[in-house]
Amino acid sequence: MARSPSLFVILSTAGLSLALASCGAKAPPGAPPPPVPYAEALLYDSTGRPAGVVTLAPVNGALQANVQVTGGITPGPHGIHIHAVGECKRPDFVTAGAHHNPTGKQHGSENPMGPHQGDLPILTADSNGRATASFPTQTTLDAIFDADGSSFIVHADADDMKTDPTGNSGARVLCGVFYRKLRPI
């Protein structure tokens, strides 16, 4: 299959920009800026039906979470967490492991010994089981993409923000594994 010269030039320039950025060199004038890495998790319910997307993208030195649940949860508050293993085996998603907690803290922002880096704010679903939220996190892309990866879980119940280890947030109802993606600046 013949390649388009313009696609080849774009890919070559992007590769050169990435190579230069990794060694601290400046890109040639007019070269596009290197793409920015971010994390994305596609959410699924216990039957495998798509239920939303979560992104973790660098913003002002922190990872900004953007959560969009398109269905699959009951109306009202739900605990949400980043979990320590990048695996979402149905139907109960226990393969996602415990909360992402590389610093060995206890659960919850209201716990004097907490929080885990994977502890996140409450997500509130509307009457159709849809929800959106955006907030900063306390983790990094390197921590998300450790040896066994990470996942995002939506729980059946609200998180009490203090009870170790899970905040009494109930069953795991949605899960998505984080994958590394690249976005142009």
Please give the CATH architecture of the largest domain: Sandwich
Shape: globular
CATH topology of the largest domain: Immunoglobulin-like
As laid out across the biggest beta sheet, the strand order is 5-8-9-1-2-3-7
Q: Tell me the domain tally.
A: 2
Proportion of residues in helical segments: 10-25%
Largest sheet: 7 strands, antiparallel
Question: What is the distance, rounded to the nearest whole angstrom, between the alpha carbons of the first and last residues?
Answer: 30 Å
Given helix and strand content, the structural type is mainly beta
Number of DSSP E strands: 9
Q: Low-confidence runs (pLDDT<50, min 5 residues)?
A: 1-23
Find the CATH superfamily of the largest domain.
Superoxide dismutase, copper/zinc binding domain
Output the number of helix runs: 2
Give a brief rundown of this model.
The protein has 185 residues and is mainly β. It is built from 2 helices and 9 strands.
How are the elements arranged and paired?
Blueprint: H1 5-22, E1 36-45, E2 50-59, E3 62-69, E4 76-78, E5 80-83, E6 123-125, E7 131-136, H2 141-144, E8 151-155, E9 172-183
Antiparallel strand pairs: 1-2, 1-9, 2-3, 3-7, 4-6, 5-8, 8-9
Give your account of this protein's structure.
The chain is mostly beta strands. It folds into two domains: 1-32; 36-183, Sandwich (Immunoglobulin-like). Helix content is 12%, strand content 33%. The protein is built from two helices and nine strands, in the order αβββββββαββ. The strands form two sheets. It has a seven-stranded antiparallel β-sheet with strand order 5-8-9-1-2-3-7, with no helix packed on it. It is globular, with a radius of gyration of 19 Å.
